[in-house]
């Protein structure tokens, strides 16, 4: 069953177990003003309430994924106001990072500053051949403020992250792939179909095992190694006795396709 929910600058489409969340400000290159940030929070909550198994984040139009935060709004912020704005950005990125289903950033164009950080917070990143990415904040007199200083080096390594952040470089999709910033690059006109197929494949996986895998992988970044290994062991054993574990193993032994819940 498909449902569509629209805010003024964000749309949420839910089709079976897949949600597609689109930032819809193409005339502003999908930059994140405060109304859009509020709508993103509400849309993510709605997707989680719908219990979807996969979520795709993308931008409207052919030019931009999310070009960044709203600089015209930020330029006159006080320190206290800036901290509140940063907190909201962190909250949205953390929600993406911890979303119960798998998340995919379909990077269809410019992804700068806060837009790049939104992509970093997703589980997987697929870029159009036209995509251009970067943590470009240095030339505004600031630094990444929504998690980029932490998530970027986790993906590309310390040296590359320092170069990208210090110089504020904008890199094309192929360079992003070679650095490990995105997982793959596809033709621009194939991006939507390719990501939709990925999302459908993920949504067909056993729900609780996929969620457990995501939680265990996140522990790599969040907890000391021994604590993360203990979490993995407990989570692994806790899946035994579930319908999907029984069905998956029986189907393997019986050489047939599994029918997961």
Descriptive terms for the model:
261 residues; alpha/beta; seven-stranded mixed sheet; four-stranded mixed sheet; globular
Radius of gyration: 19 Å
Strand order of the largest sheet: 1-2-3-4-6-8-11
In terms of per-residue confidence, which ranges show pLDDT below 50 for 5 or more consecutive residues?
Answer: none
By secondary-structure content and strand pairing, the structural class works out as alpha/beta
Beta strand count? 11
Q: Strand-residue fraction?
A: 15-25%
Number of helices: 11
What is the global morphology? globular
Helicity, as a percent range? 40-55%
User: What string gives the helices and strands in order?
Assistant: EEEHEEHHEEHEEHHEHEHHHH
Averaging pLDDT over every residue, what do you get?
94
Through-space gap between termini: 17 Å
Q: The biggest beta sheet, please? A: 7 strands, mixed
Structure, briefly:
It contains eleven helices and eleven strands.
């Amino acid at each position: 069953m498909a449902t569509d929910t629209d805010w003024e600058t964000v749309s949420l489409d839910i089709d079976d177990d897949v949600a597609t969340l689109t930032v819809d400000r193409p005339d502003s290159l999908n930059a994140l003003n405060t109304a859009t940030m509020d709508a993103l929070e509400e849309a993510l909550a709605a997707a989680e309430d719908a219990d979807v198994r996969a979520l795709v984040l993308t931008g409207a139009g052919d030019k931009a994924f999310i070009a960044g935060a709203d600089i015209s709004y930020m330029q006159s912020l006080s320190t206290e106001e800036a901290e509140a704005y940063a907190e909201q950005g962190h909250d949205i990125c953390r929600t993406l990072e911890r979303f119960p289903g798998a998340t995919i950033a379909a990077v269809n164009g410019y992804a700068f500053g806060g837009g790049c950080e939104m992509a970093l917070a997703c589980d997987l990143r697929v870029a159009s051949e036209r995509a251009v990415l970067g943590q470009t904040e240095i030339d505004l007199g600031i630094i990444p403020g929504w998690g980029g200083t932490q998530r970027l080096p986790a993906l590309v390594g310390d040296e590359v992250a320092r170069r990208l952040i210090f110089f504020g470089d904008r890199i094309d999709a192929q360079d992003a792939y070679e650095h490990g910033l995105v997982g793959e690059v596809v033709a621009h006109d194939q991006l939507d179909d390719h990501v939709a197929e990925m999302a459908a494949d993920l949504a067909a996986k056993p729900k609780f095992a996929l969620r457990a895998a995501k939680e265990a992988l996140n522990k790599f970044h969040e907890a000391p190694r021994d604590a993360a290994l203990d979490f993995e062991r407990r989570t692994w054993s806790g899946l035994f006795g579930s319908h999907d574990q029984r069905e998956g193993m029986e189907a393997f032994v019986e050489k047939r396709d599994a029918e997961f819940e």
